[in-house]
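User: structure tokens for this one?
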Amino acid sequence: MGVSIGTGYGGDTKQALAEALGALDPMVDSESLQLILVFASRIYDPYVLASYLSDRFFGVPVVGASTSGELSPAGYTSHSLVVAVFYDMPYRFGVAGIREIGGDPRAAGFLTAKRAYQAITDHGPFATLLLLTDGLSPRQSEIIHGAFQFAGADIPIVGGAAADDRTLHQTFLIMGPHVYHHGVVGVWIEGQTPVGAAIEHGWESLGDFMRVTSADGSVIEQLDGQPALERYLQSMGLPLDASHDTRVSTLGIVHPLGIVSSDMPFQVRHVLKEQGTALVCFGDVPRSSLVSVMTATPEQLLTSSEHGARLAMGRAGNPHVAIIFSCVARAAALGDRVRDEALAIGRGVGNLPVLGFYTYGEFARLPGRVGFYNGSLVAMVL
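Assistant:
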């Protein structure tokens, strides 16, 4: 009963798969398999991954996502792939997906949740929705709001947005033999015991609060009635002539914006780049919201990682495995200490096996948590 996890390396997709599969527990009975998860670098061919795993584990749901760094019992790795097989777990898994998010991301989230729920015929007292999305699609908040409309307030929704090794070119999702580049995949999880889930980020405000006076989706045009770029730099005591795209994208990693929220109390949005005098963020920023420039030391980020993992562990009814979704911006901010995040997570969950990946955004629709985040760590334990 539990999960077996293998990691593969190298640039050849089939060889990396063979290495990962060869590391799995040979004693696992194929008749007891329930779910296959694969998290893989964009260097691997998703069509080979989907086809090979679906054939190898015929009849077992296969779900996966591209990454910007992977987590497994090997710790933090990059340009690798992680395969996990779930067997004899006290849960049932229903899988569904939408190939194209299209112009109505809320409908895509709703339908994914509904179809994943309908894929299970025998429902239990506890449920959780695991959500994976194309991390380059806009309006991620709308996707999780749609899923929430179906699931309701009592069902936790957790997950991450697929990444692509920070190239911002194309991500992929896997559902069975199918590959989606602009879609959503959901796994409805039900059982007799609850799945533990938590989110933490570790960022704190520099203390200068600003009103978003003009914004369109993820683009902030004005802060306090001034051009957003100018006001952002001003809040850190930097002159406008310090601005250029590379500088702002670098600043945006270590100094994201925090939206004053009812939950954490800040909902983090990383600044991706400048666009004229505007700022482009990784995620929507509502007009009229109050924001502040954030900062964090590596120690603060790592402490939050351990705390989030420990919280999820304490909320799980029957812990077997921890699944982690950490933001790629955390990896960038941690720099040479990125490997320490896997160690911090391990301290939080003890001897539990860990798998996960670095994302382009994290989902956590939990009691008191609003939904879509950047710069955060989401942990689920089942």
